[in-house]
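Protein in question filed below.

…
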Amino acid sequence: MYSEWASLVPTITDNIQSVQSQSVLGKFGIAGGRDVAAVVVKQLAGNLGITNAAEPSSLSSDQEVQWCMDVICHGLSLPLAEHDIIKDCVNIYCEWITALNPGVPKISIPKPICESPNEFGRKIIKHLYNLFVPRPGEGSDTINRQAVFCHRVLRTLQDTAQNSRILTVETWESLLLFLLAINEILLAPPIVKDDVGDQLCERVLSVLFEVWLLACNRCFPSPSLWKTFQE
Protein backbone atom coordinates (compact mmCIF):
# COMPACT_ATOMS: atom_id res chain seq x y z
CA MET A 1 0.00 0.00 0.00
CA TYR A 2 2.86 2.37 0.80
CA SER A 3 5.45 0.86 -1.52
CA GLU A 4 5.68 4.00 -3.64
CA TRP A 5 6.47 6.20 -0.64
CA ALA A 6 9.98 6.94 0.59
CA SER A 7 11.07 5.24 3.79
CA LEU A 8 12.31 7.35 6.70
CA VAL A 9 15.01 4.86 7.66
CA PRO A 10 17.70 7.25 6.31
CA THR A 11 16.22 9.99 8.51
CA ILE A 12 16.41 7.72 11.56
CA THR A 13 20.03 6.89 10.72
CA ASP A 14 20.91 10.57 10.31
CA ASN A 15 19.21 11.43 13.62
CA ILE A 16 21.15 8.71 15.41
CA GLN A 17 24.47 9.77 13.95
CA SER A 18 23.85 13.44 14.70
CA VAL A 19 22.82 12.90 18.32
CA GLN A 20 25.75 10.57 18.99
CA SER A 21 28.25 13.10 17.67
CA GLN A 22 26.41 16.26 18.69
CA SER A 23 28.05 17.35 21.91
CA VAL A 24 31.28 19.29 21.75
CA LEU A 25 32.16 17.69 25.09
CA GLY A 26 32.95 14.54 23.17
CA LYS A 27 35.98 16.38 21.76
CA PHE A 28 37.62 16.67 25.17
CA GLY A 29 38.01 13.04 26.18
CA ILE A 30 35.97 10.98 28.60
CA ALA A 31 37.28 12.60 31.79
CA GLY A 32 36.86 16.19 30.62
CA GLY A 33 33.37 15.69 29.25
CA ARG A 34 32.32 13.73 32.33
CA ASP A 35 33.55 16.39 34.75
CA VAL A 36 31.74 19.22 32.96
CA ALA A 37 28.54 17.18 32.69
CA ALA A 38 28.69 16.23 36.37
CA VAL A 39 28.85 19.85 37.54
CA VAL A 40 26.17 21.17 35.18
CA VAL A 41 23.55 18.44 35.57
CA LYS A 42 23.96 18.25 39.34
CA GLN A 43 22.97 21.90 39.67
CA LEU A 44 20.11 21.61 37.17
CA ALA A 45 18.76 18.48 38.86
CA GLY A 46 18.99 20.16 42.25
CA ASN A 47 16.40 22.72 41.14
CA LEU A 48 13.76 20.15 40.16
CA GLY A 49 12.24 19.67 43.59
CA ILE A 50 13.00 15.94 43.83
CA THR A 51 14.85 16.10 47.14
CA ASN A 52 14.38 19.78 48.03
CA ALA A 53 11.82 22.44 47.19
CA ALA A 54 11.76 23.29 43.49
CA GLU A 55 13.49 26.50 42.51
CA PRO A 56 12.91 28.73 39.47
CA SER A 57 15.22 27.93 36.59
CA SER A 58 18.01 30.43 36.06
CA LEU A 59 18.11 29.68 32.31
CA SER A 60 16.47 32.63 30.59
CA SER A 61 17.56 32.45 26.95
CA ASP A 62 17.42 29.90 24.15
CA GLN A 63 21.22 29.89 23.97
CA GLU A 64 21.57 29.02 27.65
CA VAL A 65 19.08 26.18 27.36
CA GLN A 66 20.71 24.89 24.18
CA TRP A 67 24.12 24.85 25.85
CA CYS A 68 22.81 22.90 28.83
CA MET A 69 21.01 20.48 26.53
CA ASP A 70 24.27 19.85 24.71
CA VAL A 71 25.80 18.89 28.06
CA ILE A 72 22.84 16.67 28.98
CA CYS A 73 23.01 14.96 25.59
CA HIS A 74 26.63 14.07 26.32
CA GLY A 75 25.79 12.95 29.84
CA LEU A 76 23.25 10.46 28.51
CA SER A 77 25.96 8.80 26.42
CA LEU A 78 28.44 8.26 29.26
CA PRO A 79 29.41 4.78 30.46
CA LEU A 80 26.87 3.28 32.84
CA ALA A 81 29.40 3.50 35.67
CA GLU A 82 28.56 7.23 35.73
CA HIS A 83 25.22 6.32 37.27
CA ASP A 84 24.61 9.57 39.16
CA ILE A 85 25.26 11.76 36.12
CA ILE A 86 22.96 9.71 33.89
CA LYS A 87 20.27 9.72 36.59
CA ASP A 88 20.41 13.51 36.82
CA CYS A 89 20.19 13.80 33.03
CA VAL A 90 17.13 11.54 32.95
CA ASN A 91 15.46 13.45 35.79
CA ILE A 92 16.05 16.79 34.07
CA TYR A 93 14.68 15.73 30.70
CA CYS A 94 11.69 13.88 32.19
CA GLU A 95 10.84 17.07 34.05
CA TRP A 96 11.43 19.48 31.19
CA ILE A 97 9.37 17.51 28.68
CA THR A 98 6.32 17.90 30.92
CA ALA A 99 6.07 21.39 29.44
CA LEU A 100 4.12 19.57 26.70
CA ASN A 101 1.48 18.42 29.19
CA PRO A 102 -1.58 20.37 30.32
CA GLY A 103 -1.57 22.42 33.49
CA VAL A 104 0.63 25.13 34.91
CA PRO A 105 4.29 24.64 33.92
CA LYS A 106 6.57 23.87 36.85
CA ILE A 107 8.86 26.67 37.97
CA SER A 108 11.93 24.49 37.50
CA ILE A 109 11.35 24.30 33.73
CA PRO A 110 13.28 27.04 31.88
CA LYS A 111 11.11 29.78 30.41
CA PRO A 112 12.26 29.22 26.81
CA ILE A 113 11.06 25.60 27.01
CA CYS A 114 7.68 26.68 28.39
CA GLU A 115 7.34 29.19 25.55
CA SER A 116 8.36 26.72 22.80
CA PRO A 117 7.61 23.28 24.25
CA ASN A 118 7.33 21.49 20.92
CA GLU A 119 10.61 22.79 19.56
CA PHE A 120 12.56 21.85 22.66
CA GLY A 121 10.53 18.69 23.19
CA ARG A 122 11.68 17.35 19.82
CA LYS A 123 15.30 17.97 20.75
CA ILE A 124 14.86 16.26 24.11
CA ILE A 125 13.29 13.23 22.43
CA LYS A 126 16.17 13.00 19.98
CA HIS A 127 18.79 13.27 22.75
CA LEU A 128 17.14 10.53 24.80
CA TYR A 129 18.18 8.01 22.16
CA ASN A 130 21.65 7.98 23.74
CA LEU A 131 20.22 6.47 26.92
CA PHE A 132 18.92 3.38 25.11
CA VAL A 133 22.15 2.48 23.32
CA PRO A 134 23.51 -0.83 24.70
CA ARG A 135 26.95 -0.42 26.26
CA PRO A 136 29.40 -3.28 25.68
CA GLY A 137 31.47 -4.45 28.61
CA GLU A 138 28.99 -3.46 31.32
CA GLY A 139 28.01 -5.72 34.22
CA SER A 140 24.51 -6.92 35.01
CA ASP A 141 24.04 -4.41 37.84
CA THR A 142 24.76 -1.40 35.65
CA ILE A 143 22.63 -2.80 32.83
CA ASN A 144 19.76 -3.17 35.30
CA ARG A 145 20.17 0.50 36.22
CA GLN A 146 20.11 1.47 32.55
CA ALA A 147 16.86 -0.48 32.14
CA VAL A 148 15.31 1.39 35.08
CA PHE A 149 16.18 4.74 33.50
CA CYS A 150 14.80 3.62 30.14
CA HIS A 151 11.54 2.48 31.76
CA ARG A 152 11.14 5.91 33.34
CA VAL A 153 11.68 7.68 30.03
CA LEU A 154 9.18 5.40 28.30
CA ARG A 155 6.58 6.08 30.99
CA THR A 156 7.12 9.82 30.63
CA LEU A 157 6.77 9.70 26.85
CA GLN A 158 3.66 7.55 27.14
CA ASP A 159 2.14 10.06 29.53
CA THR A 160 3.00 12.90 27.16
CA ALA A 161 1.41 11.13 24.20
CA GLN A 162 -1.71 10.30 26.22
CA ASN A 163 -2.29 13.67 27.87
CA SER A 164 -0.75 16.42 25.77
CA ARG A 165 -3.10 18.38 23.54
CA ILE A 166 -0.47 20.65 22.04
CA LEU A 167 1.75 18.16 20.21
CA THR A 168 2.38 19.35 16.67
CA VAL A 169 2.65 17.14 13.61
CA GLU A 170 6.43 17.49 13.75
CA THR A 171 6.57 16.44 17.40
CA TRP A 172 4.37 13.41 16.80
CA GLU A 173 6.67 12.41 13.96
CA SER A 174 9.78 12.90 16.12
CA LEU A 175 8.24 10.74 18.85
CA LEU A 176 7.31 7.95 16.44
CA LEU A 177 10.72 8.06 14.76
CA PHE A 178 12.38 7.86 18.17
CA LEU A 179 10.33 4.80 19.12
CA LEU A 180 11.13 3.14 15.80
CA ALA A 181 14.83 3.89 16.33
CA ILE A 182 15.04 2.42 19.83
CA ASN A 183 13.11 -0.65 18.72
CA GLU A 184 15.60 -1.05 15.89
CA ILE A 185 18.61 -0.97 18.20
CA LEU A 186 17.14 -2.92 21.12
CA LEU A 187 15.59 -5.69 19.02
CA ALA A 188 18.74 -6.14 16.94
CA PRO A 189 21.10 -9.05 17.71
CA PRO A 190 22.67 -8.20 21.09
CA ILE A 191 26.14 -6.68 21.29
CA VAL A 192 26.77 -8.69 24.43
CA LYS A 193 24.87 -11.47 26.16
CA ASP A 194 22.02 -10.25 28.39
CA ASP A 195 22.27 -6.63 27.29
CA VAL A 196 19.59 -4.05 28.03
CA GLY A 197 17.58 -5.13 24.99
CA ASP A 198 16.72 -8.41 26.72
CA GLN A 199 15.01 -6.47 29.51
CA LEU A 200 13.30 -3.87 27.37
CA CYS A 201 12.24 -5.70 24.20
CA GLU A 202 8.60 -6.26 25.21
CA ARG A 203 8.30 -2.82 26.77
CA VAL A 204 9.59 -0.84 23.79
CA LEU A 205 7.32 -2.77 21.44
CA SER A 206 4.24 -2.17 23.58
CA VAL A 207 4.98 1.56 23.88
CA LEU A 208 5.53 1.83 20.13
CA PHE A 209 2.17 0.18 19.39
CA GLU A 210 0.30 2.24 21.98
CA VAL A 211 1.74 5.58 20.89
CA TRP A 212 1.23 4.68 17.23
CA LEU A 213 -2.46 4.03 17.88
CA LEU A 214 -2.73 7.33 19.76
CA ALA A 215 -1.14 9.08 16.81
CA CYS A 216 -3.66 7.45 14.46
CA ASN A 217 -6.41 9.10 16.48
CA ARG A 218 -4.86 12.53 16.93
CA CYS A 219 -2.35 13.08 14.14
CA PHE A 220 -2.45 10.29 11.59
CA PRO A 221 1.09 9.15 10.66
CA SER A 222 2.30 10.03 7.19
CA PRO A 223 2.60 7.36 4.48
CA SER A 224 6.38 7.53 4.85
CA LEU A 225 6.09 6.71 8.54
CA TRP A 226 3.85 3.75 7.73
CA LYS A 227 6.38 2.57 5.15
CA THR A 228 9.13 2.81 7.77
CA PHE A 229 6.97 0.98 10.32
CA GLN A 230 6.45 -1.87 7.87
CA GLU A 231 10.18 -2.19 7.33
Q: What stands out?
A: The mean pLDDT is 88.
